[in-house]
Amino acid sequence: MENLVQNLVNIFSGLGKEAIVFLISMLPILELRGGLIAAALLKIDFLSGYVWSIIGNLLPIPFVLLFLEKIFNLLKKVKFCEKIITKFENRILKKKKQIDKYGYLGLLLFVGIPLPGTGAWTGSALAVLLHLDRKKSFIYIVLGVILASIIMSIFSYGILDNIVH
Questions:
Q1: What phi and psi values does residue 78 have, to the nearest 5 degrees?
Q2: Can you tell me whether residue 1 is helix, strand or coil?
C-alpha cells in the first residue's frame, strides 16, 4: 500500500499536501489508511493529517449510502455491467456474517479494524446491500472510521514506536 500511496503522492504533487491527503483518503481501497500513510510520508503534522484523512474518508460515504443501490440497479440493465455488479455484490455480501451476528456494532468493527477489504466504502456498500437504516449506518461508519484512524495513526505516525522506545 505504501508504494501505491507514494505513486499517488507523486501524481498529485502539484497540489498542496493537505489536498493530497484529502484526495487519497476519498479513494476506495486506500481510504483513511492511505491518507494517513500519505500524511506521514509528506511530513504533515499529526493533527492536520488526521483531520484531513477523516474528512476525506467520510465525504463520499453519504453519497454511497444514498445512491449506490440506484447506480447498481441502473448498471445491471446493461448486459456487460450486470455480471460485474452481481459479482461485486456477491463479494461484498460474503462479508455479512459479522453484521448479521453483531448488528450495527459489527458494522462499526468491520469499518474500524483496518484489514484488507474492510473500510468505510465497503461497510457502506454492505449497509446498502443489507438494507440497513442509512442514518444509523452512517453513525456507526463514522465511529468505525474514528477507530480505524486511531489504529492507523499508531502505525503511520510511529506513535507505537515512540511508546515502545
A1: -95, 120
A2: coil
Joined together, the cell numbers standing for residue 3 give 508504494
Does pLDDT of 89 surpass 60? Answer: yes
Rounded-to-integer distance, Cα 139 and Cα 158, Å: 28
Spell out the domain ranges in the chain.
2-58, 61-150
Provide the H-helix boundaries in 76-133.
79-93, 97-102, 104-112, 120-129
The C-alpha cell 448479521 sits at: 100
Model pLDDT for residues 16-28, shown as the tens digit of each residue: 999 999 999 999 9
- Are 40 and 15 within 8 A, CB to CB? no
- d(CA 66, CA 70) in angstroms, rounded, equals 8
* CA-to-CA dists, residue 106 to 44, 99, 122, 127, angstroms: 32, 5, 13, 11
**Rounded Cα–Cα distance for residues 107 and 79 (Å):** 32
